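Need residues for this backbone.
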């Protein structure tokens, strides 16, 4: 049962994060979702807090919807302490917040590299560091990281790939370090292509028709994956049915771990 359990979702107000927040709220979690309302680099996501509140209200659901920067320790610590003060415990953490500007090493500025690492990797570290003492005191908990097939390397995604590769390693290390404290750590990888997020649409300049018309592999279901598909996998990993699962990577959409495809040779004329 999930009733009364408390879950924090970073980047929980837009895209995949919003789907996770709504799914967990529907399943009885006390959800604390946070993100930034202003658009971030290479993303179309904005005003996510208002959008999430409206969708929750339309479905008769409740959640704490807050604005905070996952890359700032003060913001994360304040949010976690506020959650403890309001709900008394933290049972689950979903590290979903991410940005993903495209680029090779040669055309990625140092500032952009640092911002990607701050959000995608440091943000997960800060959230884990803040919630772990409470989970340890309670006698257990569950952490789910939202990874990417880019974590094994993909073309034109040097910084993003490095950050997501680091997230795989961080998740495995956490699973080892806190195994005997009954804290489970797993990673979910969205796959199949064409999942609508601020980051994915931002990579095509905000052109949603272009994004949705692209040819993609899809899934074994005979359709592309959705945010809800990712959310269902997350909900399973947070549930009692998954109490023995830790240190695992689950691909939603199949074969995201294989990376690729190899891009065509550039025209150097």
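Answer:
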């Amino acid at each position: 049962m999930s009733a009364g359990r408390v879950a924090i979702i970073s980047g929980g107000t837009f895209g995949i994060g919003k789907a996770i927040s709504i799914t967990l709220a529907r399943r009885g979690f006390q959800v604390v979702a946070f993100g930034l309302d202003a658009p971030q680099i290479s993303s179309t996501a904005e005003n996510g807090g208002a959008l999430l509140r409206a969708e929750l209200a339309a479905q008769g659901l409740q959640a704490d919807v807050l604005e905070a920067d996952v890359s700032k320790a003060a913001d994360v610590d304040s949010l976690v302490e506020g959650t403890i003060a309001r709900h008394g415990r933290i049972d689950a953490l979903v590290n979903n917040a991410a940005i993903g500007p495209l680029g090779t090493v040669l055309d990625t500025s140092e500032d952009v590299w640092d911002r990607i690492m701050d959000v995608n990797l440091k943000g997960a570290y800060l959230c884990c560091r803040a919630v772990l003492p409470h989970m340890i005191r309670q006698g257990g908990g569950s952490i789910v990281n939202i990874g990417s097939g880019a974590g094994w390397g993909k073309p034109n995604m040097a910084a993003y790939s490095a950050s997501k590769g680091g997230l795989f390693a961080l998740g495995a290390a956490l699973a080892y370090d806190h195994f005997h404290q009954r804290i489970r750590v797993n990673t979910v990888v969205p796959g199949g292509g064409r999942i609508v997020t601020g980051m994915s649409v931002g990579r095509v300049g905000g052109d949603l028709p272009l994004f949705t018309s692209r040819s993609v592999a899809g899934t074994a279901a005979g359709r592309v994956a959705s945010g809800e598909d990712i959310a269902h996998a997350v909900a399973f990993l947070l549930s009692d049915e998954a109490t023995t699962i830790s240190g695992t990577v689950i691909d939603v959409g199949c074969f995201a771990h294989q990376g690729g495809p190899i891009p065509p040779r550039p025209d150097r004329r």
